[in-house]
């Protein structure tokens, strides 16, 4: 059973949206010399319980592809089919309210991810312990470092019990011990049937944890296959 099926996905942006005519033209999908493709005819299938790695240089379209999969942004062309509840961890601090405490944000962000309040209350101690920010949990998150944001965000997302977990480069801001802890949790989720989408510049982690790897360049998927072969192909570019 497939968790994700993308067919002929293309996404464009327009450089100049400074006037009403340009905005209307963009919304009506009218071509313009200011258009540029961020994703170009992407086809992808991920089975339930698989881990897909996505690699490529900065600006290759990785984050945009994740946002299309997560339903945060929509493609201009193509079809997207996603089966199950998605928990995206794409941007540091996304979904958090800076004036609320870490504890309050666990309830706030957990509810966004579809967790019932009773379930959050049941798991909140585990979330706080996993994030390792006990001393700051009752402080406003606007005072958190990027690493603390990432740790709390991952902890909430992982304990939400998603069908599909999407993890972008946010883990890179954590220390090595926390990264290993996160990858252990990812392996646990995978063993329970969670589909994982992982974007990282760490080729060792990509090779160790992924079943297939897609290589992006200039918005195109130029390779999709076994992790070792995909990494070799990417490094040769």
Automatic annotation (TrEMBL):
Source organism superkingdom: Bacteria
Protein known as: ABC transporter domain-containing protein
Transport found in the keyword field: yes
Annotated family: Belongs to the ABC transporter superfamily.
A GO CC term assigned to this protein in UniProt: membrane
Cited Pfam families: ABC_tran
Protein's organism: Candidatus Nomurabacteria bacterium RIFCSPHIGHO2_02_FULL_38_15
Keywords recorded for this protein, A-Z: ATP-binding, Nucleotide-binding, Transport
GO terms of molecular function: ABC-type transporter activity; ATP binding; ATP hydrolysis activity
ABC transporter domain mapped to chain residues: 4-235
Database matches in PROSITE patterns: ABC_TRANSPORTER_2
InterPro entries named in the record: AAA+_ATPase, ABC_transporter-like_ATP-bd, ABC_transpr_TagH-like, Bact_Polysacc_Export_ATP-bd, P-loop_NTPase
